[in-house]
Write a structure and sequence with these properties.
Length: 350
């Protein structure tokens, strides 16, 4: 949880719907009218929404099985995007090939990671889940070296990878034998983050340059993900026989705000201030998730959690940077924002 001109390699959000890439997107899009809300306010709101997604997941799993938390998230998120499509009078994609690729993208970028994060938060704090989500660009770099020939490895990026995973070990307290951390829950959260990275590489290879708008493709992607979970959830979890208020509101906020509305906000940010600036929300998400978990859920916070998170983010930043005079201005124009929860993208991401 990450929405417009993006190219992939690493995910959102753990969280929000991840925007689909377009080819050759300029750094700035022409604006017809001045937005009524300053971009800085929308930037802060986006980081807040995505950071609180882990809080909403934790509250949602208090009343519903994880599969239904993921399903509700998809359902309400899809409803927002489909309603927006109707207002804008845009259509869903028509090509069967596009729908086939979107079905795979929906599984890798939405159904699977949304479900894994929900299951993970039955066992680990929301703060740890938020930090695990920040490893998406680290996974993205590892995978892009294999899948994307134009993503050349550099010493800086390899250093970032090593630093990032050292941060993960710090968060988990490796020197103490990972005592106090639930291994299964942590692994699920890390696999969810890796799924975002895999999904964005797939999206970049299969859906870049299609004629459909990002809004159209993302709406279709969430619809397909909703159908996938609607089929799978009843097979593996009992259908809820009640709708407790707080968990239901949390799932609604997770979908309508953290998945649907967040896409629309990020779309506007990328168009106004460029994908690189918009992707900076990535580095605020773990901070918001940690503050929300400690302040609102009473989760304990030891010194190694914020220190490790800072190391993870530093490593993630380095994996997305490219040194050298040649790449300077050109890369600024080509780098892209992340998806819904997003991580910065580079020839890669949310």
């Amino acid at each position: 949880m990450r929405t417009t001109a993006t190219s992939s390699s690493s995910v959102p959000p753990g969280l929000p719907v991840r925007p689909l890439p377009t080819s050759g997107a300029p750094h700035r899009q022409p604006q017809r009218g001045r937005p009524s809300v300053d971009w800085r306010i929308r930037f802060g709101a986006l980081a807040l929404i995505w950071g609180c997604s882990f809080l909403f997941i934790k509250l949602g799993t208090d009343g519903f099985p994880p599969l239904y938390v993921a399903f509700g998230r998809m359902f309400f998120g899809a409803a927002v995007l489909v309603a927006t499509l109707a207002v804008k009078r845009e259509r869903l994609p028509r090509a069967a090939r596009t729908w086939g690729h979107l079905a795979v993208a929906a599984f890798l970028l939405n159904a699977l990671p949304f479900t894994l994060f929900a299951y993970a938060e039955l066992r680990i704090p929301s703060t740890l889940a938020g930090i695990c989500n920040a490893t998406t660009p680290l996974w993205g770099m590892v995978l892009s070296l294999v899948a994307l020939s134009e993503d050349r490895p550099t010493r800086r990026r390899f250093a970032g990878l090593a630093i990032g995973f050292a941060g993960v070990l710090t968060v988990l307290g490796a020197w103490q034998g990972f005592s106090g951390q639930d291994a299964a829950g942590t692994v699920m959260a890390l696999v969810a983050s890796a799924s975002y990275a895999i999904g964005w590489i797939y999206v970049r290879r299969t859906l870049t340059g299609t004629d459909d708008s990002n809004l159209s493709k993302s709406g279709a992607q969430l619809l397909l993900g909703t159908v996938q979970l609607a089929v799978v959830a009843p097979l593996f979890a009992p259908v809820p026989d009640s709708l407790p208020a707080v968990p239901l509101l949390a799932v609604f906020a997770l979908g309508a705000l953290g998945t649907g509305l967040a896409f629309l906000v990020q779309y506007g940010l990328v168009a106004e201030v460029g994908p690189t600036m918009a992707s900076m929300t990535t580095y605020l998400i773990p901070v918001v998730a940690t503050v929300a978990g400690v302040a609102l859920l009473g989760e304990e916070l030891s010194w190694n959690t914020p220190v490790g998170a800072a190391i993870v983010l530093a490593g993630a930043f380095l994996t997305q940077s490219k040194a050298g005079r040649r790449t300077g201005r050109k890369e600024r124009g080509r780098s892209s924002a992340s998806p819904a929860g997003g991580v910065p993208a580079r020839g890669r991401q949310s």
